[in-house]
Amino acid sequence: MVVTSLENFRRTRERGFNLLGLRSRHRRRAEVMRPGDRVLFYVAPRRSFAATATLTSGMLEDREPIWGAPRPEESHPWRFRMRADEVPEEADWILARELAYRLEYVRKWPPEEWALAFQGHVHQLPQKDFKLIETEMARMRRREHATPAY
Questions:
Q1: Residue 72 half-sphere exposure toward CB, CA atoms < 13 A
Q2: Whole-number Å distance between alpha carbons of 120 and 25
Q3: Alpha carbon 80 to chain centroid distance?
Q4: Does 57 fall in a domain?
Q5: What secondary structure letter does DSSP report for 116?
Q6: Domain count, the chain
Q7: Which of 22, 82, 109, 133 lies at a CB distance of 3.0 to 4.6 Å from 78, suitable for a disulfide?
C-alpha cells in the first residue's frame, strides 16, 4: 500500500497510472518489489482507498520531478511501470473507517487508533486485506454501472 497526498494521487491518475514513484528513503522496500506485485493507493487526507494497480517492471531510478514531497531530498526516484486495475471515481473511494475493523493489518493498533495503521509512505498488507478492499472497489463499480430495475 502506498500512502499518498491527494495532489500526488491526481498526478499519478493524470499520467494514466503508468508510473509509481517511491520516496528516496524507501529504497530497500523498492528493491524487493517485482513485476506482478499489486499496489493499493491510500489517499491520506481523505482517509480513503482510491485505486489498485499492478507493477509491470522492476525498480528503475529516475529523479525527474513528478510528485511533490515534504522535502526535496525525499523525491520519488525509485520508480516502477504499472497498469491500473481498479480506479473508482473520487465519489466512490472506499472510506478506510468502513473497512478498518475487518482488516488484519489494522489489528496491530487499538481500535480507536485505527488511522495510525496508515501513517508512513509504504506498507505491506496481507493479501487477504488487499483482496477485500479491491473486491469492494469492484462492487462499487458494478453497482455504478447497473441498470436500474423498474
A1: 1
A2: 11
A3: 14
A4: yes
A5: G
A6: 1
A7: 22
